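Task 17 of the worksheet. Students: predict the tertiary structure of the chain below and write it out as structure tokens. Keep your answer in the requested format; marks are given for formatting as well as content.
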Amino acid sequence: MKKFLIAAALVALTVPAVAGSEPAERAGAKVGAYNNYFAPKKITVGRGTKVTWVIRQGVHNIRGGGTNSPTLSKGRTYSKKYKRRGTFGYVCTLHPGMKGKVVVR
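Model answer:
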């Protein structure tokens, strides 16, 4: 019994705990907004995930699929937490054809 306890204690000391870790899909996901496109164009996440759009170039907004951001300039972000399953399309109304999709499983 003593050997088992000592071995368990050594394992506990050598295996670091991951404090505050979450499943990857709940930790958050990012989408970049560039001159005339979102990257990635389609993102798949789990329920409860917060998706953050990061404006990398120009000025954009994110509208549709439950999102309604203000107009944002380079370096600004907009986030939305997806609580239900489904497919949610969005666009930048400032740039025709600039669209993306969030798929929530």
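Marker's comment: The chain has one domain: 23-104. Residues 37 and 98 are 5 Å apart (CA to CA).
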